[in-house]
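USER:
I wish I could look at a protein chain and see how it folds. I am handing you a single protein, as its sequence and its fold in token form. As I understand it, each token names a local backbone shape. I hope you can help me see how the letters and the tokens relate. The protein I mean follows directly.
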Amino acid sequence: MRNTHIVLHRALADAERLRLVMRNVGHLARPPAVPHVERATWTADELRSFLRHVAGDRLFIAYLLLATTGMRRGEVFGLRWRDADLAARRASVTQTITTVNDKLIIGPTKTNRSRRTISLDPTAIEALEAHRVAQDAERSIAGDAWDSSFDLVICDGTGRPEHPDRFSRQFQRHVGETNLPPLRGRTICATLGRHSRSMRECIRRSCPIGWATRPSPSPSTRGPPPRRSRRRHRRGEHLRDMT
């Protein structure tokens, strides 16, 4: 009902601007209030359980990027290797892969605001490096059938785009196998937002060994602890330092 009101209101506004009607009567109508429905998210333990379940999945990197970067599904599948600077630990979101009537649409982000640079944490970096090694092996097997023009991080066995809808169906199947609460793929990033620091730690623990584990420095190599400054900050000074 509310969407109908929006469409009619805009149509009448155009008619008023073109002087086809004297006034926009849509201003007089009061659309029904839309109740706020809080989006369901997983707890840190539930996300850890899910990532452990899909750790051996070929598209594990897609689940991990959704959980650690806040990227949308189309942005994850549109990510190219030339957009990911692993040395600088960042990636540029410049294109998306969406579907219309089951047909793949590759194009730029919806708005200029959607074009952005995101940070990649060490877990994502190591997972991307491992994913690249696996993808190089698939490239060798495919041989001349490999299409390198797409340069996609997530692709099928011939270098072409994976279908996002197929991934979503696979995601729901995995959720059913783990008996976790139903959740849409795009809300994994919302799950991360609820548990920021503890969530990243649980993701690190859920990844395969070697992807996200680094040896901690021994006491002899850590060096002396930093000396605490005795200088007292004036009120508000620490806030200015953070801006």
